[in-house]
Amino acid sequence: MAIERTLSIIKPDATKRNLTGKINAKFEDAGLRIVAQKRIQLTPAQAGKFYEVHAERPFYGELCEFMASGPVVVQVLEGEGAIAKNREVMGATNPADAAPGTVRAEFAESVGENSVHGSDAPETAAVEIAYFFSGLELVG
Ligand code: UDP
Ligand code: MG
To answer: Is the pTM of this model over 0.85?
Structure first.
């Protein structure tokens, strides 16, 4: 499998509870390398643009508000099959369905406030990484 990069976000519910280090440990233990990382606060408009693929979904407004409700840590993870591997470490969207040991099983509070975002395909990973980082900020 090829070396990939994927965009990860540690969401406000997790930064608020001081879980950045514990979540990063799960990524690193799975062989994912954090090659870029910054803590920022999104505006609702910036969150809305990031999640615009979900604009028609009923939870969109709440999601944008939540993502702007506190700091997030945006990061680029690199490794063999990083996109799928990160999704595995994250667990299912709804923590009730997430496999034991995954980030969402251990830390997520609800289907909305579920601690982490991860890109779902190579095309979306490229767009999402470029939304937050310039090439100069990615140090593999
Ligand atoms: N979400 C929600 N309610 C739902 C489904 C999703 O609030 O019924 C939120 C949740 O924060 C999720 C995000 O919208 O992480 C994006 O949804 P997606 O289906 O892309 O899930 P993910 O890729 O994050 O697992
Ligand atoms: Mg998604």
So the answer is: yes
